């Protein structure tokens, strides 16, 4: 889960489209595409969750903003992923019971190495299970949202 390119630390929201610099490496959103890029994670303590995901899981902190009174948005990205998670307060549209997100999958190349890295960071991770040639190891955040490390040996 290490030695991957470092992502930007913050996202600046432009006030005008003319302020957006040209970035030839940016992903183009093509007509008809539906890109899954952000999954909300319901938590009871946003600071505790931020610490868990950054310090224990090694997720990159992309955004931590308070765009309006009573609203906070934190966006974090797992190493190497194109999909991020969000931790939020003050947004009724994203309100869910803390700990209700289940079975988010993190696909890894070497499940035992990924498992050991998380364990070394203080995360409790289940032993690896072989479920018909696909391997899983499970963990959860402090609120009980569950995650799976998934390894499919045929994937490069």
Identify the strand order in the major beta sheet.
1-4-3-2
Q: Name the beta content range.
A: 25-35%
Q: Gap between N and C termini, in Å?
A: 15 Å
Largest sheet: 4 strands, mixed
What's the helix-strand series? EHEEEEHEEE
| Mass-distribution shape | globular
Overall mean pLDDT = 90
Instruction: Assign a percent range to the helix content.
Output: 10-25%
What is the structural class?
Answer: alpha/beta
Uncertain parts: 4-9
Q: Total number of β-strand segments?
A: 8
Rg calculated over all Cα atoms: 17 Å
Number of helices: 2
How would you describe what is shown here?
The chain has 156 residues and is of the alpha/beta class. The chain has helices at residues 46-56, 111-120, and strands spanning 38-40, 60-68, 71-77, 84-89, 104-107, 129-130, 135-140, 146-151. The chain is built from 2 helices and 8 strands, in the order E-H-E-E-E-E-H-E-E-E. It has a 4-stranded mixed β-sheet, with helices on one face. Strands 5-8-7-6 form a 4-stranded mixed β-sheet, covered by helices on one side. Strand 7 and strand 8 (146-151) form a beta hairpin. The chain is globular. The model is unreliable at 4-9 (pLDDT under 50).
């Amino acid at each position: 889960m290490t030695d991957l390119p470092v992502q930007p630390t913050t996202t600046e929201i432009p006030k005008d489209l003319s302020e957006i610099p040209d970035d030839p490496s940016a992903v183009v959103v093509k007509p008809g595409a539906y890109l899954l890029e952000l999954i909300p994670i319901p938590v009871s303590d946003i600071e505790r969750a931020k610490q868990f995901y950054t310090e224990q899981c090694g997720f990159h902190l992309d955004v931590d903003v308070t765009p309006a009174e009573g609203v906070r948005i934190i966006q974090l990205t797992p190493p190497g992923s194109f999909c991020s998670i969000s931790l939020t307060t003050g947004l009724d549209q994203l309100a869910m019971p803390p700990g209700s997100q289940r079975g988010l999958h993190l696909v890894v190349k070497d499940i035992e190495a990924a498992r050991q890295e998380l364990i070394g960071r203080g995360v409790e991770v289940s032993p690896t299970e072989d479920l018909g040639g696909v391997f899983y190891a499970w963990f959860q955040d402090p609120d009980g949202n569950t995650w799976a490390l998934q390894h499919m040996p045929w994937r490069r």
